[in-house]
Design goal:
single chain, about 120 residues, about 0% helix
Length: about 120
């Protein structure tokens, strides 16, 4: 059974930092593409950052220079380092793992709240 478990969310003031983690259980892909999405109330889910099977990273324009995505050994863990957080970064953050094709899984989410 596939399960993704996020952790590390919380409440911080603007300018603060948080580090999100995601542990993947039960995945046996040959290669992994991973990423983070977020969704604020009333907004659509948006991609925040991604890392492919070769380690190439991409970021939403709104977080470039502030967020860093990385993965752990054996491609079974994923991290998102968030610095200089802004109130507009608030939302539920979801990690996702895929086989770089059509099979994709999302976690349950971890809440990030940034106060001004």
């Amino acid at each position: 059974q596939v399960k993704l478990v996020e952790s590390g969310g919380g409440s911080v003031q603007a300018g603060g930092s948080l580090r999100l983690s995601c542990a993947a259980l039960g995945l046996t892909y040959r290669q992994y593409c991973m990423g983070w999405f977020r969704q604020a109330p009333g907004n659509e889910r948006e991609g925040v950052a991604a890392i492919d099977d070769e380690g190439v990273t991409t970021f939403a324009d709104s977080v470039k220079g502030r967020f860093t995505i990385s993965k752990g050994n054996a491609d079974k863990s994923l991290f998102l380092e968030m610095n200089n957080l802004k109130p507009e970064d608030s939302g539920m953050y979801y990690c996702t793992f895929s086989d770089c094709g059509s099979r994709k899984h999302f976690g349950q989410g971890t809440q990030v709240t940034v106060s001004s």
